[in-house]
Design brief:
The protein is an alpha/beta fold and 249 residues long. It contains 10 helices and 6 strands, in the order βαβαβαβααααβαβαα. β3, α3 and β4 form a beta-alpha-beta unit. The longest helix has 21 residues. It is globular, with a radius of gyration of 17 Å.
Length: 249
């Protein structure tokens, strides 16, 4: 199993899940470019979806992984979907947590790119701490305020450890505005695809429902009383659900 984290995340965000699964599965967590212990080059072109997908493919080859159950969260979910469509022979099954196929129209993507670049410039200008103060308060993460103080502190420290250049270039290179729409390619996926969403994350519940309309073979699993980051808010339940999915994959 290969795990791809979200924006501002790293391999440690999956530890609660991989600790549970590693007894019976080979679990590989990857720090995507600009995050964690992976380098944060200044060249924005190194952060494109195609370049990052090629990085992941090379890493799988290096690890002698012929095909995998690919798990991606949020940004990592968009990357996992892009990878699956680019290297379908390397994917056995795809599990997307709170992820999307991008924005449907060029006008939406143009507006989002403008906003992503403005946020990227803000990170570089004002630094990581100011950005983390802002980021942890956005509505998408409101349900995380219910987490124990210790867990919230760990999440904050993990975000604070990131590189300003890495986060900025990630937004510019593989933010939602930079991603080509994959909506019209969902029917190309012939292996099992599971869409995991938290019921409090209304936007991504709707996106999952729209994705299933385009490929009825997709299965949606909704976690009750949970928000965007299911694997953080309900790591034990998340791991158990994946274990059950593996039995039928």
């Amino acid at each position: 199993m290969v795990f791809l984290h979200g924006f501002t995340g790293d391999t440690t965000t999956w530890s609660g899940v991989t600790d549970q699964l590693s007894a019976t599965n080979r679990c590989v967590s990857i720090d995507l470019i600009g995050h964690g212990r992976t380098e944060s080059p200044k060249d924005v072109t190194r952060y494109t979806m195609d370049r990052v997908a090629a990085d992941i493919s090379s890493l799988l080859d290096e690890l002698d992984i012929d095909n995998t159950v690919l798990v991606g969260y949020s940004m990592g979910g968009r990357m996992a979907l892009h990878f699956s469509l680019t290297y379908p022979e390397k994917v056995k099954a795809l599990i997307l947590e709170s992820a999307s196929p991008g924005l449907r129209t060029s006008e939406e993507r143009k507006e989002r790119r403008k906003n992503d670049h403005a946020l990227a410039d803000r990170i570089e200008r004002e630094g990581i701490e100011e950005f983390v103060d802002f980021w942890q308060e956005i509505p998408l993460f409101a349900s995380q305020k219910r987490l124990p103080d210790k867990v919230r502190s760990e999440i904050r420290q993990q975000r604070m450890s990131q590189s300003a250049t890495g986060l900025s270039n990630s937004l510019k290179g593989m933010g939602t505005g930079a991603q080509n729409s994959l909506w019209d390619r969902l029917d190309e996926l012939t292996f099992p695809v599971r869409l995991l969403v938290g019921e409090l994350d209304h936007k991504f519940v709707h996106i999952a429902e729209e994705m299933k309309k385009l490929n009825p073979d997709f299965q949606i699993l909704t976690f009750s009383n949970t928000g965007h980051a299911i694997h953080v808010e309900e790591s034990r339940k998340f791991g158990t659900i994946i274990e059950e999915l593996l039995l039928i994959t």
